[in-house]
Structures
1.
Amino acid sequence: MSKLKVDLEGQASPAAVSLIRLAAKAAYAAFDYPFDGEVHIQITDDEGIREYNRDYRQIDKATDVLSFPLNDFYRGEPEEDPAELIDPETGRVPLGDMILSLERAKAQGREYGHGAARECAYLTVHSMLHLLGFDHVDEGEEKAAMREREESILSVLGLSRKIDDQTERQG
């Protein structure tokens, strides 16, 4: 079974950090890759993520999570031979970087009624799927495939969510 190395920087509660690591590993494990992977996760606040968003996406506002993939995947499948993606120094495929606003996760956790740690887990799964080639730019098939995969992974973690028309996420 393949493994995911999670490099995590920033401050969060032990529960949130543990759930972030668990969520990243569960998202990776859902694909049963024949190679080990690596992801870097930076926990920041709204101001920190606003700066990343401004500098890298030319959007000068805070958001909940940003994903910066290092390799091309489409719905979990690498678009080139995984052997070509392996970093010879680590023996792992670098997936990319995730920037997560703990401040925004706390606010959204309150808004959705499930707390910051659970919101951090959701945002981590969401971002991991972006790193693995999922997207939700349309309101159709792409978004549906991503939401289905998110729910599947969160269910494995015992964190499934019931979505109604009022609480469905827009992002």
2.
Amino acid sequence: MFEKIPELIDPVHCAEHNRRFRGRVKQSDLKRLRKQLVSAEEWVEVDLVFRRHPKLKTPLFELSVKTPLCLECQRTLAPFVYPVDSTVTGVYLSSLALSDDLDDGVEFYELPEGNISTYELVEDELLLAIPMIPRKDEEFLTWQAGELAPSSVEDAVEKPNPFAKLQQLRT
């Protein structure tokens, strides 16, 4: 069912022929993504469809990616799985002035002279899906935030104020 997608394609040719690419890419093949992951052993399921934009007649694509990302939790520094299931719609434009005619939610890109890298498209979408501060949901943490609060409050009450002696010297 899934096979490897081509690394380089011509978006104009693909849009003229309504091409669709379904396949898988190994996470380890995506160099920038690999640097963000604890483990890059999973596959990314990719569905990439090209056609012409109905109004502008320029290449339009719909990219869907689905994969589990193994990230490092910034609370616990332990690895955790972050599922990604993302879809983006984009249009290649010869002039960025045409971007005013696009619907909301449609990304626009400058039309390249030659081929584009499908791997870079996939990698860009996955990098944008990574949260700014990756962390596990609180329900999966082994400790609860409320457990530490009472002991720290008690410690604060038992310790004398370090500025009390300075106050006595002042008077």
3.
Amino acid sequence: MSGAKVHGEEKNSILQSRKNITLIEHMTFIFVLGLLVAGIWSSRYEVIMVKENLNKIYVSINPCILAVEKSYTQGSSNLISDSVRQCEKVNTHLVKVKTVNVNGVVNIDNWHPSLGKVSVNLVPMIDNDLAEIADKESQIITAWRCDPTRAYRQADRLLESRLCDLLNKKDKS
């Protein structure tokens, strides 16, 4: 009889150790699943924050964009300096115009606590070519190209592409 008890105790001991391994496996699985969900949620949060602030950014930089377009329409390099003055006024908690060059390329910094700084160059285009201002020659900017100064995160790329869509009146949201 004592042999049967020993054999039964061994069997119970093996089952108990197998239950412990299963519990550890379950805990590991839940931990890894939690990390994946947290990563997806964080990425989705960034995308939502960009979308929420994009219209505010667009409204802030629109006077600057319109001033650059006006200088091209009137064919005056002198108006670029007026554009620069108009653009220098853009300085909100979401966006700041850093520079405007002689051809009207506008460099902006977007700032958001969850995204950090996202820099974009807004480049005026005329018929799929870089715009260059010419005195006494009226030109119409046909599109704006948005070039990120760096784009490592999904939110950076989203900001750049959606801002360009807004500038070119292609935004569907």
